TrEMBL record:
Lineage of producing organism: Eukaryota, Metazoa, Ecdysozoa, Arthropoda, Crustacea
CDD domains: ASKHA_NBD_HK_meta (cd24019)
Record's protein name: Phosphotransferase
Pfam families per UniProt: Hexokinase_1, Hexokinase_2
Pathway the protein contributes to: Carbohydrate degradation; glycolysis; D-glyceraldehyde 3-phosphate and glycerone phosphate from D-glucose: step 1/4; Carbohydrate metabolism; hexose metabolism
Hexokinase C-terminal domain mapped to chain residues: 219-451
Purpose of the protein: Catalyzes the phosphorylation of various hexoses to hexose 6-phosphate.
EC numbers: 2.7.1.-
Length: 461
């Protein structure tokens, strides 16, 4: 497998195209610089009194262990903030999930934008409804709460909301503990015996879910709408960790790498296309790193390149369709489809996508579009691989499994193989494998509830 190649008969045109996308092709020097910056940002993020603020939150999840195979019993999880809101039930026996059920609920708009107390009452009602329909009533069940919003954790079961994002904006919750608000709502009802004992985000859930099936798992990655990672860090390297934790050797650290570069440290990799994607995004100047490759943005980056090349007279006979000029019109699904053509040496998906966008195109246009999708996908893999390789070397385990969740990773036909190639080259001494761990944000939360229950029992003894 080689690096992206553009096949065009006309050498002058070829040169012009390459010139306009040069910035997307990360040189070895640039890659090295990204890695250096990532490593210094990680250190700053773990420091107690950093001289300058890091763009990496390096959040302590307070999760000191993964599943050890002794977990047993019934657990619930609640997943809020991903694409779907749902309640999940897991029954674990002898280290395996023997039964499970999931139910999806719609959070009405007035609840998403109303007072926080109403939101948590609604969540408690869904839990009640879920248990009611499944003969779980009357049981005391521990619950793991996946709360995929920026939060500061102060314990495994304390998550302070920093800000609402996505389609949520409830009053009276920012600065409050989401776990306490949910527990209060459950207790207010008086008819549901559930204890929220852990709060997490999807990345931590993915790691736990991955480790449940593969004990070598020590990194969790999200490659979906956005991107993030967590890994197992030595407690003695977390300088900023205050309070009692003498007996804790390791803990899961949530890197929050989607925001890597928000302080300007990655400005040297930004192309005009990345800047345009940022300008047209919801939170301008935030989530710098993930805007370079997240599922929400990958297609949009390609679109920005195609529009520019069209304007320069290098594509579609200088005619961009109205469709192509629409933000978001070139989806990341198109990138996957066109990459499939690159894999199979055919054009069928590419012509399909271009037809959908009502573009008039010739053979050369197809070549260029296929090349751009390849180049942007390749850059995505390089960026994720740099940071993953860095985590692998940092943990320095003989063998590590990386659990990955998210539709981008799942559906892109060769992101995985690109990453395998790059990570192997970037962390040559550390054996690894990439594993799809679906639904970490759902199932993982139930597993964390099981771990938290076990830890509670151990502490009580
Ligand atoms: P979330 O990140 O919200 O939990 P997902 O993991 O399902 O949800 O990721 C959703 C993202 O996946 C969307 O931004 C979308 O662009 C991307 N996506 C959906 N289908 C595909 C596909 N076929 N190829 C690549 N990316 C896709
Ligand atoms: Mg998800």
């Amino acid at each position: 497998m080689s690096t992206p190649v553009l096949h065009l008969d006309d050498p002058v045109k070829r040169q012009k195209v390459l010139e306009l996308v040069r910035g997307l092709d990360l040189t070895a020097d640039t890659q090295k610089k990204i890695r250096d910056v990532f490593e210094s940002e990680m250190e700053l993020g773990l420091a107690k009194n950093p001289p300058v603020a890091s763009s990496l939150q390096m959040e302590n999840t307070f999760l000191p262990e993964l599943c050890d195979g002794s977990e047993e019993g019934d657990y619930l999880s609640l997943d809020l903030g991903g694409t779907n809101f749902r309640v999940i039930w897991l029954r674990i026996k002898s280290g395996a999930v023997v039964s499970e059920a999931v139910q999806y609920y719609q959070v009405p708009e007035d609840v998403r934008l109303g007072p926080g107390v109403k939101l948590f009452d609604f969540l408690a009602e869904c839990i009640h409804n879920f248990m009611d329909g499944r003969q779980l009533k009357g049981q005391n069940l521990p619950l793991g709460f996946t709360f995929s919003f920026p939060m500061t954790q102060q314990g495994l079961d304390v998550g302070i909301l920093v800000s609402w994002t996505k389609s949520f904006n409830c009053s009276g919750v920012v600065g409050e503990d989401a776990v306490k608000m949910l527990n209060d709502a459950i207790h207010r009802r008086g008819d549901t015996d559930v204890d929220v004992i852990a709060v997490l985000n999807d990345t931590t859930g993915t790691l736990v879910q991955g480790a449940f099936v593969d004990r070598k798992c020590a990194i969790g990655l999200i490659l979906g709408t956005g991107s993030n990672a967590c890994y197992i860090e030595r407690a003695d390297r977390i300088e900023k960790w205050e309070g009692e934790h003498k007996d804790v050797k390791e803990v899961v650290i949530d890197v929050e790498w989607g925001a890597f570069g928000d302080n300007g440290v990655l400005d040297f990799i930004k192309t005009e296309y990345d800047k345009e994607v940022d300008r047209n995004s919801l939170l301008v100047g935030s989530f710098t790193f993930e805007k370079h490759f997240g599922g929400k943005y990958l297609g949009e980056i390609v679109r920005c390149v195609l529009v520019r090349l069209t304007k320069e007279g290098l594509l579609f006979q200088s005619n961009a369709s109205e469709e192509l000029l629409q933000h978001g019109a070139f989806t990341t699904r198109f990138v996957s489809l066109i990459e499939e053509d690159n894999v199979n040496g055919v054009d069928v998906n590419t012509t399909g996508a271009l037809n959908e966008l009502k573009l008039a195109f010739n053979k050369e246009d197809i070549e260029i579009v296929k090349y751009i999708c390849w180049l942007v996908s390749d850059r995505a893999a390089i960026l994720v691989s740099i940071c993953t390789a860095s985590l692998l070397e940092r943990m320095d385990r003989p063998e590590t499994t990386v659990a990955i969740d998210g539709s981008l990773f799942k559906h892109h036909p060769r992101l995985k193989s690109f990453m395998e190639k790059y990570i192997a080259a970037m962390a040559p001494a550390n054996k690894f494998q990439l594993m799809l761990a679906e639904d970490g944000s759902g199932k993982g939360a139930g597993l964390i509830a099981a771990i938290a229950s076990r830890l509670k029992k151990q502490q009580a003894h």
